[in-house]
Every structure is written in C-alpha cells, then in structure tokens.
Amino acid sequence: MLSLTNEHGVTPFRVDRIAGTPQILDEDAVPQPEDFDISRINTMFGMFIGEPQRVTLVCENSVMDYIVDRFGDEVETRPLDSKSFLADVNVAVSKPFFGWAFGFDGKVKIKSPAKVKREYKKMLKHAVENS
What we know:
This protein is an alpha+beta fold. The protein is built from three helices and four strands.
C-alpha cells in the first residue's frame, strides 16, 4: 500500500474524502514538525505525492496567471522570447502533474530535466496507442 506520509510524518488528506464532520481540537493532536513548510503543498498535484523535483517549463505568455495561481507569487520565471517564458517550479512529478501540463494544449511544455520529459512523452505515447 502506498504511504502518503512525508519525511516529517505528516499525511495530507483530501477534504472531500473525509466522512462525517471532523472535530476541531483546541490543541494540536500531533506537534507540528519544526521544519514543516505548508507551502510545499504547491508541489503536489491531485494530492498525489511524487518525487519532488525542480522542473523547467516553457510557457506561452497567455498562461502566466495559471502558473502563478498554481505555484505562487514566488515562482521563478524569466522571459524566453516575445511570446513565451521559462518557469522553474518544484513539483511532485506524477501522472496528475503530466495531466495538468497536457491540459494547456501545448501552451505549457516540459523542458527539463530530461528524465521527466521522457516520462511525459512515454505517458503521451501510451495514451495515443491505447485510444
């Protein structure tokens, strides 16, 4: 069985899958780890924990708002040419991440690392061959 617990012993839960009404406690049930960073949630796609990696995306200028919405105001971007930019993002590489990129109909492309790009192409090829 896949464990969703990260290196801090923290397990993310999807709110829509919690049965009943959770009880809000006044005190922490488990102390928050000292180095816990809630902003790391931005690396997850569809609550799937994958291997966190630094990925460079080539994006058309028209998707800048989507990139900022997904990765936050501190996302590292730089111009590529007059029509596109590069975005360096930290993501949990997973099929939901690839699906997210695919949903932009070519306006978001994976540039690097090469291993992530190969995984994405392999998934796309498999999808085409099985359609």
